[in-house]
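Archive entry. Fields below.
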Amino acid sequence: MTPGKRGQALTKLSSTYNPAPAHRFNVGDPVAIKRSFPPGHRRTPYYIRGKRGVIERICGAFPNPEELAYGFDGEPRKVLYRVRFAQSHVWPGYGGPARDIIEMEIFEHWLEPADRAVEPADPDETG
Amino acid sequence: MSDPSSFDYYAHRKHDHAHEHGHDDHAPTAKPDEGPPSEHEIVSRAMQELLEQKGLITADEIRRRMEIFEEDFPYRGSRVIARAWTDAAFRRRLLKDGKKACAEAGVNLEATRLIAVENTPDVHNVIVCTLCSCYPRELLGMPPTWYKSDNYRSRVVFEPRAVLKEFGTVLPDHVTVRVHDSNADMRYVVVPMRPKGTENWSEEQLAGILTRDTLVGVTVPQAPE
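PREDICTED_STRUCTURE:
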C-alpha cells in the first residue's frame, strides 16, 4: 500500500513512543475497524466498530489491555495506532461541517486493510 | 484569616470570587467516614500496611504524594504550555514528544505518554475519554466532574459543537473540530492559541490564563480587556 499525499502530510506528525519494529499498517493507510462484538474488556469503542478511517500515527507496541484486564501480563504486546475518521462517516446525520474529524487509539488486531478510505479532511491542509 | 497558620489555601483559591451565593453548592456529596469502608478502601489500606511493613514505602511518602497531587499537579500543564507559547523550539519538541518535552520543563509524567495537539486558526481540538475518564493527571490534576459525566463523554464525540457551545465556546464553520477520544494508552493536552494583547506577558502571567478547561479544549484562553 503506497501512502498517498494524505500519508505524506500525516507523516510529519507521527511519533513513536514505544518501539514497534513490526507493524502491519503505515501512516496514511486506509483501514476498517472490525465489526466484532466479543465479550470482555475491549478498548475499541462500540461506536467506531465497522467504520473506516486512516492511520494518523503509530503509537508503538503496548501490553494488550484485553489480557491485562484479567490479570495476565499483556504479552505479546500489540501495536497501537491512532486512527482519524470523518465525523460525517462515523455518525450518519452528523450536524457539523464535513471537515470535522475524530481520532482515537486502535490496536492492530482490531484493524483490517480497507481498499478505499472514507477520507477525513486533513486539518493541516487549509483549503 | 489574619492567622496564617489557619489559612485554608484551597478554600481561598476556590472562593476567590464574589460571595453572593450560598454555600450549599459546596457541600460534600457524601460524608467521608460514614458507614463501613468499601472493598476498595479495605484492599488499598491492607496493601499500604503490607508495603509499609516490608519497608518499601512509608506513610509519609503516601501523604506527600497526595499532597503534590493536589498542590502541584493541577498547575503543571499551565506552566508547560506557557513555555510553549514563549519558546517556539520548545513548542515543536512538545508537539513531537509530549513526555520528553515535559521532562525538559521539569515535569515528570511518570508512566503517562502525552500527545500535545495544537489549536490553529483552522483547527480546534477537544479531549474526551468515552470509555472511562482517562486524563493527564500528572499534568492537570484530577479530572473535573463534568469530564467524567456520561453527558460529556457520550455527547462531545457526536455533537462537539453543541457541547462546546454549552461551555461558551462557539466555533465558526470554517474551523475544523478535531475530537480526540483518549481511549487507550495515550493522554492528551491541547496547546491553545495565544490571545492577542499578551505579547509582553511573562510566562507566569500567561500560565494564569491557561486554565484547566483551555487545556482540555472546552474553552479558549482570553486576555482580560
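CURATOR_NOTE: Residues 39-53 of chain B form the longest helix (15 residues).
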